Amino acid sequence: MKKLAIVIGEPESINSEIIAKSWSKLDKISKKKIFLIGNYELLKKQLKIIKKKLPLEKIKNIKFLSNNNKLQIIDIPLKFKKPFSFKNNESRRYILNSLDLAHKLAFSKKILGFINCPINKRKVFKNSNQGVTEYLSKKHKKQNNEVMFLYNKDISVVPLTTHISLKYVSKKISKQLILTKVNILNKYYKKILKKKPKIAILGLNPHNSEFKSNSEEKKIIIPAIKILKKKINISGPFSADTIFLNTKYFDVIVGMYHDQILPSFKSLNNFKAINLTFGLNYLRGSPDHGTAEDLIKKNKANSQSLEECIKFILRKSNVKL
Question: What is the largest CA-CA distance in the chain?
């Protein structure tokens, strides 16, 4: 039986806590369908500190996965002295080795897909504009053909550009970028969610720059929408300041940049949202929050987003991408 991998991710984080809390809430069938990728000794020591228990079993590789009642973990080497304190280079290698193994297994269809728990991308990626979404797309040889899809059953969002500074957004926006990203969004939404999405797309400027002739809305966004409308149910451009008052009319809102849509989306959905990557040949998700280093060892972390992620990918694991 193929299983779903959960990459433990950032060592200095709440990840051990949310994994333990999520495991305790899973039914018996779901528990048999997941395994971990990470360092066995580290997880064991972190769980002891936060007084959480998991029936862990260390295994060498995927060949040793079984359907017993243990939470099996493929052990990734990691040198450490303190369970919640690391040198950046050591944790960086550990996280990338874990992600690389998960990608390799998912790409070759040996697992159902994978979830990576939060990482601190500033510690992991030398390029400050890169996150896990971009990293996996590059390994997939589909760079710039990935879509960051933030999902909730009521409304989902997609940032057209992801982790770039605001001063570069207007230079990055192009008609071709809009066409590429929206077509990928539409294709994967239909495949995974079995529905043709109703898509709203936002302008770049406040009040869409009043649609001035030299604005990005007039020169780039509207021409792209006209082309997309021939095959896709898309409307816009809408102004970002009011779009979240009208979410019942749409399935997905596409924004021009990360913080144009993420703050409102997260405010509405809190821990009920998950982060998915569209454009890969497998399902990859992550909780829609960060490492929460301020909550380490306090037993106050909310595991709902990870729980939602596990349930979603297990439910959609039969989808062919």
Answer: 65
Q: How many residues in the chain?
A: 321
User: Tens digit of pLDDT for each residue in 234-249?
Assistant: 999 999 999 999 899 9
d(CA 47, CA 114): 22
Q: Read off the tokens for 43.
A: 């997880």
Angle at 121 between CA 119 and CA 126, to 5 degrees: 140
Same fold flag, 1-143+279-321 and 147-273: yes
Q: pTM score > 0.90 for this model? A: yes
Closest listed residue to residue 309, CA positions, set 41, 113, 136, 53? 113
Q: Does the structure show a pLDDT above 70 at 128?
A: no
- pLDDT at position 115 over 90: yes
Q: Lowest-confidence range among 1-5, 18-22, 231-235?
A: 1-5
Angle between helix 40-49 and helix 15-25 axes, rounded to 10 deg: 80
- Token pair 């913080």: residue: 259
- Residue 284 near residue 192, CB atoms below 8 Å: no
DSSP label at residue 141: T
Mean model confidence pLDDT for the chain: 93
d(Cα 127, Cα 104) in Å, to the nearest integer? Answer: 22
CATH code, 147-273: 3.40.718.10
- Asked if residues 271 and 175 have their Cβ atoms less than 8 Å apart, the reply is no
- Fold held by 1-143+279-321: Isopropylmalate Dehydrogenase (3.40.718)
Per-domain residue ranges of the chain: 1-143+279-321, 147-273
pLDDT at site 318: 86
